[in-house]
Amino acid sequence: MVAVSALGLGLSVASAAIRGDVVGEYFGALPAVVLPTITGRVVRRLRQDADRLAELTVHLERERERPSSGCCGWSGADSPTRRSRPSW
């Protein structure tokens, strides 16, 4: 990826030099070649993050559907958090 960008940048600068363009043309070649490469890398990274998030979402949904015995062996109504408080 970097090699292709470097090649594109080199060809753009060489083309501007052969045509005898002004210095501003050299600097115009830089964003024209490099920015699409950077954008592509950012988009790829965001897609990878979105795919990983989708995998984690599926995993969490499976965990929620699976019956659990609760914390420390307590189950259902016997759970300390589910017992009613004594009325003093």
Key attributes of the depicted protein:
88 residues, mainly alpha, 69% helix, rod-shaped
Structural features, described:
- The structure is a single chain.
- The chain has 88 residues and is an all-alpha fold.
- Helix content is 69%, strand content 0%.
- It has helices at 2-19, 23-65.
- It is rod-shaped.
- It starts with a helix and ends in a 23-residue tail after the last helix.
Strand proportion, as a percent range, falls in under 5%
SSE pattern: HH
Secondary-structure-based class equals mainly alpha
Q: What count of helical segments does DSSP give?
A: 2
Q: Report on the biggest sheet.
A: none
Count the strands?
Answer: 0
First-residue to last-residue Cα separation: 73 Å
Mean pLDDT: 77
Helical content, roughly? 55-70%
Radius of gyration: 30 Å
Shape designation: rod-shaped
The unreliable regions are none
Topology:
Layout: H1 2-19, H2 23-65
In short:
The protein has 88 residues and is mainly α.
